[in-house]
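Hi Y.,

Following your request, here is the sequence exactly as I used it, all 200 residues.
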Amino acid sequence: MLQRRALHLEPPHAAASSPVADVLARRARDGDAGAFSALVEHLQPRAVRFATQMTGAAGDDVDDIVQDAWIRTHRALPRYDSGRAFESWYFTILANCCRSLRVRLQRLHLRREPLDDQLRDDTLDPLMATGTRSDVARVHRALATLPAAQRETFLLHYVEEFGYEEIAVITGAGVSACKMRAKRAMDAVRELLREDTSDD
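Below is the corresponding structure, written out as tokens. Let me know if you'd prefer a different format.
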């Protein structure tokens, strides 16, 4: 059952960072254009998934967010510290781009469509890959109700499988705050799913 699978899933204790990404980033920083292209290809599916779920955007809007993050990454690459995992460094930039979009939408008073309406492929989310369309919609509706900081932490921890120390770096929050956000987010999603199921 989707809810049991999703809500009891624990990410691996190991860091989510990929040695492949670190090697490619070092090569790209040293001027290897092909390495940067390979780096984009390596992380693009995760970047699109994260931006979609964080902002509720779709199609060209998501592409614009992710492309903006890659442009900023490329510009900042000479300052990349190879002692830091590249994936957490990149996701810091991507998360900032997502936050900027949310602020712009709020200022323009634009109404976002629910996250579940944007879903085109259930396999984008490994948390919900085995669920039915209805199950997926329930989880995304629950995620859409979370405060932005909790949703961001939930996605980074349970979907992208970053550890709390990495999430703290990405978000700028303390490790204890990240743990609390993840717990509150999980508790809220569980409760919302229970309520949603009881209404069926």
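Residues 2-198 form a domain with the Rna Polymerase Sigma Factor; Chain: A fold (CATH 1.10.1740.10).

Thanks again,
Q.
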